[in-house]
Amino acid sequence: MQKRRSLFWHLYFPYLITAFVCLVAISWYMARLVTEVSHEEDLADLKAQAIILQKFIGQNFSEEQFGKIDSLLREMAPSTGTRLSVVLPSGKIVADSQEDVSRLDNISSRPEIREALKGKPAAATRHDFDLNAQWSYVAVPLIINGEIAGAVRSAMPVSGGPSGLPRMRTLIIVGGLAIAVLLACASLYVSRRINRPVWELRTGVARFSGGDLRRGIDVGDWAEFGAVADAAYSMAADLHNRLKTVTEQRNELEAVLSSMVEAVFVFDTDERIIRVNRAAERLFQINEAQVRGRSVQETIRNRELHRFVAATLSSEENGGEQDIVIFGDPDIFLQAHAVTLLDAQDQKIGALVVLNDVTRLKTLENIRRDFVANVSHELKTPITSIKGFLETLKEGAIKEPENAERFLDISIRHTQRLDTIIEDLLSLSRIERQSERGEITLEEKPLKDVIEAVGRACLTAARNKNIALECKIEDGLSAKFSSTLLEQALVNLVDNAIKYSEPEKKVEVTAKKEKDEIIITVRDQGCGIPKEHLQRIFERFYRVDKGRSRKEGGTGLGLAIVKHVVNAHRGHVSVESSPGRGSAFSIHLPVTK
Amino acid sequence: MMRIRLRGDIEKLKKRVASLAALVEERFRMAVRALEVKDPWMAEQVIAGDLVIDHEEVDIEEECLKILALHQPVADDLRFIIAVLKMNNDLERIGDLAANIAQQARTIASSDDRIQVPFEYFIMAQKAQEMLRKSLDSLVNVDVNLAYQVCATDDEVDHMKYAMQDEFSREAVKNQVNIESLVNLFLISRHLERIADHATNIAEDVIYMITGRIHRHGRRGPTESP
């Protein structure tokens, strides 16, 4: 930045220089004038002397007089300080107050002599080589009896000016210094005065940039500064408004991005993160302030995402799509969409990536896929057997009564099984449909009855394996439920408990109230369920141990039915289990006030 | 001008290492998952994907050597390159070990006997995963305290491995029939322990990169506490 000088110096120097230039010019001119005047006075003086001498000589101008005049001149000379000479028309000097006439040259060529000899007094100033100085000469004609008999010349050296000149010089120098000081004071005063409105402007503008636009700037009665003040105020107001608009827009954008469910990333062309929104922070457990400016490889350790970003930035197309999985506990499935960001000149400046969480969709898809596969498998197995046996019978086994009987028995069993499976499936879909349409009626009833009914229904199965079935119900417990549905669900649970327990073990059904829930638990001492299956056992056809379950006659739908029934009651199911020790299935029903 | 080139190359290297680290971490997680759910397909992915890791390792090493030759970096940059050269190796080894685990998973998934992978294995795997995560975090975030934490955890994993080894020896005596499955399980515990070791190595390399002190074999700097 240029070095800036104060106003004072900007004023002072020009003023000072101007003043000095004037001063010098005036004093030089004055000096010349005075010198000229003095010179003229000298010439006048010379002329007077010459005329006096001329008069003195008068009529006495003859050869005998020359010597007398000469000595007379010599006598006079020292007192006047002037050199006087008398000259003949020929140019010969016949009397001189300083030099020896015999040694003097002919001076007829001298201009003043020539003029004088013509009859006119004349003056001249020239350099005398002998004496090496400027001399002034005045010559007047010597007229005797009407004829020009010669000329009288007076001369003196040119003086250096009047005696007062050095004094004048001193005066001028002192005067100059005084002017300098005076000007300094004047400049100081003027600059001070100007500084006041300037200072007002400065503080005013600082105020504007701080946002305070309540009043303008008051500069007093300075027209130009006033114009600047007004311009500054309107500019500040304009900027303020623009800034407000921009801030508002940015806040809107912030609000939109923060409330989005999808995760949004903005990358620059170096694969660095420019922006992330709150959903992205939550998804990847990062912090916007910490990751801003860092590359995606360092901040998010997901190889697929790195490749996706790199591909988007380097490809010719405008964007792309990809599925990305975040492995973890649990896995998160994302659908990523990317768009390249272009600036006003259509140059790529970055990429925008939006990540959609489709885990739920994926899970549902998996469930559906598994379900379809399972149903097909479950139905196919009995049908294959039936088909096989029937074909065998047709091929001739029908003629062997024993085998025929056996084959038919097996086929009937399989048919029964198919029936059960399809019955369960229909049951399940009915419950779902009814639940969706709100066709299930819930009534407030004591639980005791339904649980006792369940006990009765399962008694046979329990006795067959010598398993003790116990029911413990809190007194007077009642809930809002549908008898048929709840009975069906509990029967399924108790049946499972009996099925998966060794003989001589115990199955316990308890019902109690806890806070705002009624919890009915079916606890067994069976083989238990490993941890990794607990999440999925309520899915249709999900089997922990495929071989064993089918042998026991299970359809794989029992728990799914339980879950849907309980959901229809606005409750939920839960399960606890340790392999080798037993399981406890709980139905949670909400208490209605 | 050269400094700008050096910075650019180092930034690129950082990104590559981070990307490889992410890949290795994912593969390890996949291998453990394949073991958990007995998914042969997932196991196959890990085994086949090891090739990519190997290629990346070679590329990164070449990149490091190129930077050293071209720019002759000094001080912080030099330590960084050296640390990268070393952890590059560890990462590749972890990738290999993950592939090994995946192989065991594949064997177990397709085997007939219902050998259950005991819960302790998954706890150990989780520990190893966490150590790896922490050491990689300490690398990208330049966090030396995190790196020290990883070094401290290594002992735990070693103990777990010894416990499993004892269990194995006991079971092997009792259960001669399923010896092959038992051996498979034992190998898995070995792999997990080695992965934890490599994660510790990476943490030590990070400590060197940040402090300039070599933190191995019990040699610790004068101002740190073990």
Structure commentary:
The complex is a heterodimer of chains A (593) and B (226). Among the domains of chain A are: 150 residues, PAS domain (Beta-Lactamase); 98 residues, PAS domain (Beta-Lactamase, 2-Layer Sandwich); 151 residues, 2-Layer Sandwich (Heat Shock Protein 90). Helix content of chain A is 53%, strand content 21%. Chain A has a 5-stranded antiparallel beta sheet with strand order 2-1-5-4-3. In chain A, strands 7-6-10-9-8 form a 5-stranded antiparallel beta sheet, with helices on both faces. Chain A is rod-shaped, with a radius of gyration of 66 Å. Chain B has a single domain, classed as Phosphate transport system protein phou homolog 2, domain 2 (Methane Monooxygenase Hydroxylase, Chain G, domain 1, Up-down Bundle), CATH 1.20.58.220. In chain B, 85% of the residues lie in helices and 0% in strands. Chain B contains 6 helices and no strands. Chain B is elongated, with a radius of gyration of 19 Å. Chains A and B meet through α8 of A and α1 and α4 of B.
Placed side by side, the strands forming the largest sheet of chain A appear as 2-1-5-4-3
Distance between the termini of chain A: 80 Å
Tally of distinct domains of chain B: 1
Helical percent range of chain B? over 70%
Share of residues in strands of chain B: under 5%
Question: Would you identify the regions of chain A where 5 or more consecutive residues have pLDDT less than 50?
Answer: none
Rg of chain B computed from alpha carbons, rounded to a whole number of angstroms:
19 Å
Q: What's the average pLDDT of chain B?
A: 86
The largest chain-to-chain contact, stated as pair and per-chain residue counts, equals: A-B, 16 and 20 residues
CATH superfamily of chain B: Phosphate transport system protein phou homolog 2, domain 2
Distance from first to last alpha carbon of chain B: 43 Å
Question: Proportion of β residues of chain A?
Answer: 15-25%
Mean pLDDT of chain A: 84
Cα gyration radius of chain A (Å): 66 Å
Q: State the CATH topology of chain B.
A: Methane Monooxygenase Hydroxylase, Chain G, domain 1
Helix content of chain A: 40-55%
* Overall 3D shape of chain B: elongated
CATH superfamily of the domain at 440-590 in chain A: Histidine kinase-like ATPase, C-terminal domain
In CATH's first tier, which class of the domain at 440-590 in chain A applies? Alpha Beta
What is the annotated CATH architecture of chain B? Up-down Bundle
